[in-house]
Amino acid sequence: MRWGAWIRGLATALAFAVILCPILVVVLAAFSPTDYFVFPPPSLSLRWFAEFFRLDNMRNAFLLSLELALSSACIAATLGTFAALHLARRKGWVAAVLQALFLAPLVFPTIILGLALLLLYKSVGMPPLPGLILAHCVVGMPYCFRTVLGSVQSLDPALEEAGQSLGAGPLRTLFLVTLPLVWPGVLSGWLFAFIVSFGELNTALFLTGPGVTTLPIEIFSYLQFQGSQLVIAAASTLQIALIILMVAGIERVVGLGRIIRSR
């Protein structure tokens, strides 16, 4: 038992190191005062954060990604919630097929998805920004659907039946009984959809147009063709900081334990 616990602890430490060490390198490099990558940095500076906000293309891409992630996450959470409510307690092959279709973007290559959406948008004349929002909804909706589905399936149907027996109609039961009980799952799905949208690169590579460039695309093109990796480190650190702030805010509102259990 002692050797087993030691091996599990070592494996856990290695897993954390593999995940956290690259992130720590990026974050520390973002505070470097030098003109080129040096690790560890000789001192700390906000030089590259100031450079990030000085560059119009970086700043505009950051704001566009934030707007895109917020809008697509809200739409994905709404659609995924109502789809989960509809399919949670249905049986049969039709319900199974529909659930598989909602979860398909999790395993479907996003590059192929981006190409397929590009061909579709060209045939219908879809503008770039609405097309990007729709694509990010498709990528983020499985997370919303899955988290809400788990919450609804763990919900006691007797609670909804009790609301209806007291005179509440289907809509009042939905908004006064069901949604308040499953909202940690809704919030969890929204958070995952936001994070996925904010960092989505593969589909955006096919769907961006003039004046519509997300932050991952800008980072990719800047790293490939323009210059300093330290500006990219600052941009990545801002993304990490934003996600940490959102997770901390949700922890204050509902608690991450309830969100995790809702899955």
Topology readout:
Elements: H1 2-30, H2 47-54, H3 56-87, H4 93-103, H5 110-124, H6 128-153, H7 157-165, H8 170-198, H9 202-207, H10 215-225, H11 229-253, H12 256-262
- For the secondary structure, the number of strands is 0
First-last Cα distance: 31 Å
Domain module count: 1
The pLDDT mean sits at: 79
Helix-strand sequence: HHHHHHHHHHHH
Model description:
The protein has 263 residues and is an all-alpha fold. The chain has one domain: MetI-like fold (Orthogonal Bundle). It contains twelve helices and no strands. α3 crosses α10 (215-225) and α7 (157-165) packs across α8 (170-198). The longest helix is centred in the N-terminal third of the chain and has 32 residues, at 56-87. The radius of gyration is 22 Å and the shape is globular. The two termini are 31 Å apart. Mean pLDDT is 79; it is low at 259-263.
Short description:
With 263 residues, this protein is mostly helical. The chain is 79% helix and 0% strand.
